Amino acid sequence: MHGTHVAGTIGAVSDNKQGTTGVAWNVKLMSLKFLGGPNGSGSTSNAVKAINYVIDQKNRGTNVRVINASWGGGSESQSLREAIAAAGNVGIVFVCAAGNGGEDGVGDDIDSTPDFPAGYANSLDNVISVAAINEGDALSSFSNFGHNSVSVAAPGSAIWSTVPNAREYEPKSGTSMASPHVAGIVALMLSNKPSLTPKQVRDIIVSTAEPTNALASKVVASGRANAYNALTETLAAKGKPVITHASVSKKKVTIDGIGFLNGSSIIEVNGVAISDIKFDDSYNLGNGTISRLRSEPGKKTIKKMFPKGQLVDVTVFNPTTGERSPKFATGLF
């Protein structure tokens, strides 16, 4: 059932007045099963065999360009990493689910709590790991995330798709439902421009994603994959600055959000600019903005601007555009 649901999201038939429509409805699908039983369990060694089978088919002339991996879990495996890398070497993009958190069902930061194969996205350039969002564009509560390890997000809550029973269509939730949305986008991109390399595909999807408040600094793209933008290689518009999270310690201030400008944005505390703004290029977004600002002005300045136990208003000002974010209340507690 899980595989049928995922397959429908990728390539269910369109314009037939039935059920749902896949992202790439003219795609051809190759089904490989290595998970089974009531809990959908399997082994990493069989996952490697499945990937190697796809590579063999590609080498035999089958035009396989993308693997959707709506599965995950377990520790890091060198053999799995090598198989995924080998797929990239023959032109295959590997799209995978970011994972659904631990036993508590709450998503984890897999930069600090690794989950594989999603964790390979930060070291293999053919891997796109996908977090799940809900209908309100918020990160799904069960979805893993990670500024370095999760590439982008896509719809993954209450997704209607095909199932192999009398109902034919059912809603399901999980990063397994998010991953095939992006795999479908990859298929569209490569049908439109077959010369793209896996790295180019990944970079385009990440750089053309739509930044959203809820995803700021949570995934590499800080946003949701956009099929139109990816196909046309159109960058998302630069939005006005918005603060989504702020943390204050005795020595530094860290601000996350969207619409910040690398090299020029200013952090203000109760209307007063704070000094020593640091810009981390790893938070750069495709549309020329940056999702994190940091300042380390020293203990005395922090103590003065953030009286302990009191809320203050923080804003971000972009001098080049004259735009200022709404006030965000935070403090040192």
Task: Give a description of the structure.
- With 333 residues, this protein is of the alpha+beta class.
- The chain has two domains: 2-232, Peptidase S8/S53 domain (Rossmann fold, 3-Layer(aba) Sandwich); 242-331, Immunoglobulin-like (Sandwich), CATH 2.60.40.
- 24% of the residues lie in helices and 23% in strands.
- The protein has seven helices and 17 strands.
- It has helices at residues 2-11, 44-59, 78-89, 175-192, 198-207, 227-232, 299-305, and strands at residues 66-69, 93-97, 127-133, 152-155, 159-162, 169-172, 210-211, 223-224, 242-248, 253-261, 266-269, 272-273, 277-279, 289-295, 311-318, 323-324, 328-331.
- The strands form five sheets. Strands 11, 12, 15, 16 and 17 form a five-stranded antiparallel beta sheet that branches.
- A hairpin with a 4-residue loop joins strand 15 (311-318) and strand 16 (323-324).
- Helix 1 packs parallel to helix 4 (175-192) and helix 2 packs parallel to helix 3.
- The longest helix is centred in the middle third of the chain and has 18 residues, at 175-192.
- The chain is elongated.
Brief digest:
The protein has seven helices and 17 strands.
